[in-house]
Design goal:
With 168 residues, this protein is an alpha/beta fold. Helix content is 43%, strand content 18%. The mean pLDDT is 94. The protein binds adenosine-5'-diphosphate.
Length: 168
């Protein structure tokens, strides 16, 4: 059985992420979306909230599982008994970092390979950071995330503007 881990921050999950999950779930027997807990990016949503949002947008895909993790990605991949890591490639700017990460992962854990799915052209410009930036000004994010996620992001952005603390 071919099992893949698709790791990321997903703060919040965008239509670009959903496209990669959907496409990889058709290639693999099982896809485990790994939500990074400890990240230096001061997330808008806690890992628990991000897991919940991902579960709600992937509920129709029976071979997709959502789990939070911290520590080394290769350790998480091993724990999941997965064969590969899936990453999305949007532009040449992603390439350098992704190449470095995949090569590093193969050195520290030789059995772990990374496969890349190139972005759907529709979402090639899209990132969670852009969504958050627009949301901070209560702009229209309906082309980037599902309506349910948009509501949550706009609400949280408003709360943060009013002084609420960012998620841990
Ligand atoms: P990270 O913080 O690890 O970059 P992200 O949540 O930003 O996590 O992204 C997780 C993965 O999804 C990465 O492989 C990234 O390249 C990919 N990704 C992000 N946005 C898109 C998009 N619009 N289209 C395709 N892949 C994407």
């Amino acid at each position: 059985m071919a099992v893949a881990v698709y790791p990321g921050s997903f703060d919040p999950v965008t239509l670009g992420h959903q496209d990669i999950i959907e496409r990889s779930s058709k290639i693999m027997d099982k896809v485990i979306v790994g939500v990074l807990k400890n990240n230096s990016k001061s997330p808008l949503f806690s890992a628990k909230e991000r897991v919940k949002m991902l579960k709600s947008v992937t509920g129709h895909m029976p071979n997709v599982e959502i789990l939070a993790f911290d520590g080394l990605l290769v350790d998480f991949v091993r724990q999941c008994h997965a064969d590969v890591i899936v990453r999305g490639l949007r532009a040449i700017t992603d390439f350098e970092y992704e190449l470095q990460m995949s090569q590093t992962n193969r050195v520290i854990s030789p059995g772990v390979d990374t496969i890349f799915l190139t972005t759907n052209l529709k979402y090639s410009y899209l990132s969670s950071s852009i969504v958050k930036e627009i949301a901070m000004y209560q702009g229209d994010i309906s082309a980037f995330v599902t309506p349910e996620i948009a509501l949550k992001v706009l609400e949280r952005a408003e709360a943060v503007k009013k002084g609420a603390r960012l998620a841990e």
